Protein backbone atom coordinates (compact mmCIF):
# COMPACT_ATOMS: atom_id res chain seq x y z
CA UNK A 1 0.00 0.00 0.00
CA UNK A 2 1.41 3.39 -0.97
CA UNK A 3 2.03 6.07 1.63
CA UNK A 4 -0.68 8.22 0.05
CA UNK A 5 -3.19 5.41 0.50
CA UNK A 6 -2.26 5.04 4.17
CA UNK A 7 -2.54 8.79 4.69
CA UNK A 8 -5.97 8.77 3.09
CA UNK A 9 -7.09 5.89 5.33
CA UNK A 10 -5.92 7.76 8.45
CA UNK A 11 -7.56 11.02 7.41
CA UNK A 12 -10.83 9.31 6.45
CA UNK A 13 -10.97 7.66 9.87
CA UNK A 14 -10.18 10.90 11.72
CA UNK A 15 -13.04 12.59 9.86
CA UNK A 16 -15.41 9.97 11.30
CA UNK A 17 -14.53 10.65 14.94
CA UNK A 18 -17.63 12.32 16.42
CA UNK A 19 -17.48 15.69 18.15
CA UNK A 20 -16.73 15.26 21.83
CA UNK A 21 -14.88 11.96 21.28
CA UNK A 22 -11.24 11.08 20.51
CA UNK A 23 -8.99 8.30 19.25
CA UNK A 24 -5.38 7.81 20.17
CA UNK A 25 -2.65 7.54 17.56
CA UNK A 26 -2.19 3.89 18.51
CA UNK A 27 -5.92 3.12 18.34
CA UNK A 28 -6.05 4.51 14.81
CA UNK A 29 -3.11 2.32 13.76
CA UNK A 30 -4.69 -0.70 15.46
CA UNK A 31 -8.03 -0.15 13.76
CA UNK A 32 -6.38 0.23 10.35
CA UNK A 33 -4.21 -2.83 10.96
CA UNK A 34 -1.14 -1.05 9.65
CA UNK A 35 1.59 1.20 10.98
CA UNK A 36 1.85 2.43 14.52
CA UNK A 37 1.36 5.58 16.56
CA UNK A 38 4.38 7.29 14.98
CA UNK A 39 3.16 6.65 11.46
CA UNK A 40 -0.27 8.03 12.33
CA UNK A 41 1.40 11.05 13.94
CA UNK A 42 3.45 11.62 10.82
CA UNK A 43 0.33 11.57 8.64
CA UNK A 44 -1.41 13.98 11.00
CA UNK A 45 1.54 16.38 11.11
CA UNK A 46 1.83 16.51 7.33
CA UNK A 47 -1.79 16.29 6.18
CA UNK A 48 -4.05 16.67 9.21
CA UNK A 49 -4.90 20.36 8.94
CA UNK A 50 -8.11 19.72 7.02
CA UNK A 51 -9.60 17.18 9.43
CA UNK A 52 -10.57 17.48 13.12
CA UNK A 53 -6.93 16.96 14.18
CA UNK A 54 -7.65 17.83 17.79
CA UNK A 55 -9.63 14.58 18.15
CA UNK A 56 -6.40 12.56 17.81
CA UNK A 57 -4.53 12.42 21.10
CA UNK A 58 -1.91 10.40 22.96
CA UNK A 59 -3.13 7.26 24.70
CA UNK A 60 -2.83 9.03 28.06
CA UNK A 61 -5.12 11.87 26.91
CA UNK A 62 -2.33 14.37 26.23
CA UNK A 63 -3.24 16.91 23.56
CA UNK A 64 -1.32 17.57 20.33
CA UNK A 65 2.10 18.94 21.33
CA UNK A 66 2.54 22.56 20.32
CA UNK A 67 -1.18 23.04 19.76
CA UNK A 68 -2.50 22.36 23.26
CA UNK A 69 -4.27 25.69 23.74
CA UNK A 70 -6.22 25.49 20.47
CA UNK A 71 -7.00 21.79 20.96
CA UNK A 72 -8.24 22.44 24.49
CA UNK A 73 -10.45 25.30 23.24
CA UNK A 74 -11.96 23.02 20.59
CA UNK A 75 -12.52 20.16 23.05
CA UNK A 76 -14.23 22.45 25.53
CA UNK A 77 -16.52 23.79 22.81
CA UNK A 78 -17.43 20.20 21.80
CA UNK A 79 -18.00 19.08 25.39
CA UNK A 80 -15.25 16.45 25.31
CA UNK A 81 -14.79 14.87 28.77
CA UNK A 82 -11.63 16.28 30.35
CA UNK A 83 -9.47 15.58 33.38
CA UNK A 84 -7.78 18.91 33.93
CA UNK A 85 -6.14 19.79 30.63
CA UNK A 86 -6.07 16.21 29.34
CA UNK A 87 -8.78 14.12 27.76
CA UNK A 88 -10.61 11.68 30.03
CA UNK A 89 -9.84 8.63 27.93
CA UNK A 90 -12.19 6.38 29.91
CA UNK A 91 -15.21 8.30 28.68
CA UNK A 92 -14.02 10.12 25.54
CA UNK A 93 -12.28 7.31 23.64
CA UNK A 94 -14.18 6.26 20.54
CA UNK A 95 -13.97 3.15 18.36
CA UNK A 96 -15.51 3.20 14.84
CA UNK A 97 -17.81 0.24 15.47
CA UNK A 98 -19.66 2.08 18.26
CA UNK A 99 -23.21 3.26 17.61
TrEMBL record:
Alphabetic keyword roster: DNA damage
Cited SUPFAM superfamilies: Methylated DNA-protein cysteine methyltransferase, C-terminal domain
Gene3D superfamilies: Winged helix-like DNA-binding domain superfamily/Winged helix DNA-binding domain (1.10.10.10)
Residues of the Methylated-DNA-[protein]-cysteine S-methyltransferase DNA binding domain: 7-68
Pfam families (UniProt xref): DNA_binding_1
Highest taxon, organism lineage: Bacteria
Protein name per its UniProtKB record: Methylated-DNA-[protein]-cysteine S-methyltransferase DNA binding domain-containing protein
Organism this protein belongs to: Dactylosporangium darangshiense
Lineage: Bacteria, Bacillati, Actinomycetota, Actinomycetes, Micromonosporales
